Amino acid sequence: MKFFVDTANVDEISALIPSGLVDGVTTNPSLVMKSGRDFREVVGEICALVDGPVSAEVTGVESEQMIAEGTSLAKIADNVVVKLPLTWDGLVACKALTGEGIKTNVTLCFSANQALLAAKAGASFISPFIGRLDDINIDGMDLIREIRMIYDNYDFRTEILAASIRSANHVKDSAIAGADVATVPPSVLKGLAAHPLTDKGLQAFLDDWAKTGQNIL
Ligand code: G3P
After folding, report:
1. pTM (whole model) above 0.85
2. Domains in the chain, CATH or no CATH each
3. 131 lines ligand 1 (CB under 6 A)
4. For residues 62, 31, 105 and 130, what is the CA-based torsion angle, rounded to 10 degrees?
5. Which residues are part of the catalytic machinery?
6. 50 vs 15, 22, 23, 78, 169, CA distance in Å?
7. Which of 24, 65, 146, 209 is positioned for an S-S bond with 53, CB 3.0–4.6 A?
8. Which of 4, 26, 28 for mutating ligand 1's site (highest number of atoms within 8 Å of CB)?
9. Rounded CA gap, 16 and 3, in Å?
10. What CA–CA distance (Å, rounded) separates 78 from 136?
11. Any alpha helices (H) in 20-110, and if so which ranges?
């Protein structure tokens, strides 16, 4: 499973790079607003930091404007992936941009039928929003399982990018359900390494080691 970091904060991304766990980045207009940065500038910086795909979202709502915005965003760097909303116009734009060789991430997906249409439109990634479905008492993980089954039935190459991930369990369950990618807030990514028994065990080893009076170096 690939990990993308779901943030437009360059410092947060930089801090995670040495782990080797950052396979890409996803941004959205809300995350850009939170960063307080100029959109094109921050996308350029992130693309220079990260080798993998960096999603940058259009804000037009009609296909023509989405295509124009997507074409312009794709010129920022080779690893830009144009993020498009899962609307009829978004699908039209996805088809057109895909035809131009531009990578796309179709976002705000809440149903398997929407995901089927995105795959048929040639999307590189589909972003089902797990947490927001859970928020309204619908099991977001069922959606990942359904999309996995449909894509495998027809051998669609569109990658399933589990989004709106809020917890370590969301990551684990997405991996079990067969998502290709999880896009994760930095705090959740770091939290995956944490376990109280690891901390307890490490402390016991350190205490016993101190009693030996030895140093490794
Ligand atoms: O990538 C989309 C994701 O960031 C949305 O997450 O927590 O706002 O539902 P959330």
Report:
1. yes
2. 2-212 (3.20.20.70)
3. yes
4. -110
5. 83
6. 12, 8, 8, 11, 26
7. 24
8. 28
9. 11
10. 37
11. 29-35, 39-49, 63-74, 88-99
Closest C-alpha to ligand 1, atom 7: 164
pLDDT digits (tens, 9 = 90+) for 38-70: 999 999 999 999 999 999 999 999 999 999 999
Give the other-Cβ count within 10 Å of 169's Cβ: 10
Q: For residue 155, how far is its CA from the centre of ligand 1 (angstroms)? A: 27
Distance between CA atoms of residues 174 and 107, nearest Å = 17
Atom 3 in ligand 1: residue holding the nearest Cα: 164
User: Does ligand 1 come within 6 angstroms of the Cβ of 28?
Assistant: yes
E strands of the chain, at which residues? Answer: 2-6, 24-26, 54-57, 80-85, 104-109, 125-128, 159-162, 181-184
CB atoms within 10 A of CB 85: 21
- β-pairing, 24-26 with 159-162? unpaired
User: For ligand 1, what atom is nearest to the CA of residue 135?
Assistant: 9
Q: Which atom of ligand 1 is nearest to the CA of 31?
A: 4
**How far apart are the C-alpha atoms of 187 and 98, rounded to whole Å?**
33
CB 79 within 8 A of CB 52: yes
Does residue 164's CB lie within 6 angstroms of at least one atom of ligand 1? Answer: yes
Closest to 179 in 3D by CA, of 159, 157, 165: 159
Please state, in angstroms and rounded to a whole number, the distance separating the CA atoms of residues 41 and 1. Answer: 29
Is the Cβ atom of 183 under 6 angstroms away from ligand 1? yes
pLDDT value at position 114? 98
